[in-house]
Prior knowledge:
Distance between the termini: 70 Å
Oligomer: single chain
CATH class of the largest domain: Alpha Beta
Helix content: 10-25%
Number of domains: 2
Number of strands: 6
Low-confidence stretches: 1-40
Amino acid sequence: MPYGEHPQRYAWSTRLVLEPTGFQHPARCDTVLSDTGRVPETSTPAQRPAPCPCLSGNPYAECCGRYHRGEAFAPTAEALMRSRYAAFAMGEPDYLLATWHPLTRPDALELDADVRWIRLEIDRTAAGGPFDREGVVEFTAYSRSGGSAAQQHEVSRFVRMDRRWVYLDGV
Length: 171
């Protein structure tokens, strides 16, 4: 820069990323620098991939969507639990039935369209890894229906059948 010229002025802008639950996560902020004084838009909400309902932070298509489409199988009991939660949230009863142990699976499953699943918390896991035959996942799922909030707490048991994890039962 030649002597006497003033450095270009820059405008800073911070945009908070909102999670599906509506909570702001300051650690996940995008800071944008523009030399024109305007914040450049890198993408519009319509262009951004939909986040996975399991709250992994990954896009649905790359997360539980792969399992729902049959492109991959959940490698752990926890991954299956998350994908089953996402199936409830996305209205995928066929996936839920397909990942249910035949001894405990109902003949049919009708999901309540009025229930909106909003958050999943994994409280504890035991075994259920890629080389285990059995696993336990304790979770709490939060939902809303008709203006009221609800939560479901469960200790779910999973087993491997034909090298795939399936949901056995829950208490």
